[in-house]
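Bug #2210: token dump truncated for Pectin acetylesterase?
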Amino acid sequence: MLLTFFQLLWCCSSLMLQFVEDDRAKCLDGTQGSYYFQKGSGEGQNKFIVFFEGGELILGNTEEEYLMNAVEKMQTQQGSSLNRASAFEFDGVLSQDKQENYYFHTWNLIHINYCDGVGFQGYKSDQVNYQQHFLYFRGELIIRSIFDHFMTKFQRAEIIILSGCSIGGVAALQWEQYLTSRVPENIPILFVPDSSILFDMQSIDGNNLLQQSLKIMNYIADDETQVPHSKCAYNYPNQNWKCLYFQNLINFIQRPVFIIQPFYDENFLYNYLDIKCIKDQTLENCQNSEMDFIELVYSKFNQIIKESLIQNSNIGSFVPSCISNCLFVSQLSFSRSWTIPEGSNRTAYQTLVKWVEKQKLNQNYQGDFGLIDQVPWPKNSACAELSLLSQFKLINIMLQVIIIILF
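Reproduced locally. Full output below:
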């Protein structure tokens, strides 16, 4: 009886794992694509959040290196559904905390798991055999299967938000045209890319790993298809990979967008630009040459975001000078000490909620919704203290493990 009670608690506070219906829609390793789902209730029963999980693209300067890294990724959760938990609790805007997540906690939640390696897109009918490992590039079929499964409900929705972290945020924008063309025009569809601004830049060692990886992806995974946003694809014939760069893709997005983007995106800096001095959410270990390079990246982020705000009144933003990634699914989105400007009450969560309310009323006024930190790291003290917070959490976890072992 007690076990049943706790099972019910787990069920009702967690998103449950589901598998896509299309047998062809496979992860890199050939397992079936998957997502977590929780049905909305009360006022949220006809409202939807579709969240594309964060992750990294397969990288490689040569086709050989690319396929080798693809094999490595297929053995992780970013390439397989094999070891997904049957249920999972998420933080931030996806949490079930009624007090902190007061606005979204009753909405339908669809968390699309990242397992295709190429950003929730791509299609190759035949598997790729690399050193006796069989790779599947079927990300497009996974998303089509999930969207088609929910399409009848989407067509009766009050509002739909597509969001995602890192490459997941790029995917949210990529699938805009597919969804909006199938849903009545009067239904608000909003986009919230988080830590998702990719742009063309050489890494600190002079290589352009991201660009080269995208080109290889283009002829391996997209040889039989094109990127989901066909308007962008049409504008870049034979160079569809350019549609994964934010400043290119954003020009084709017709619906409102709220950008969440840390100026010091640790995933972009570390994985794509090879800045390895970032540790424990601090730049204190970086040399002068590395800091100079990081400042160039900071300036580029600033330029892209400000140009987007100027060009489109439908765009809002929350851009802190923090070394972080994925605020949308983080407790930091609620933090009153984590605001723009520092010391105000403008948290990421509160700003997002107010922006959503304005968009539901079809009011295209940026006003207080184009928030950009005006000081670099570490002058936003709450961001600078993240390093100490991370170390404290690590110590706390270690103490808990020691207590469990001893007692």
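Output looks complete on our side. The chain is about 35% helix and 15% strand. Marking as cannot-reproduce; reopen if the truncation happens again.
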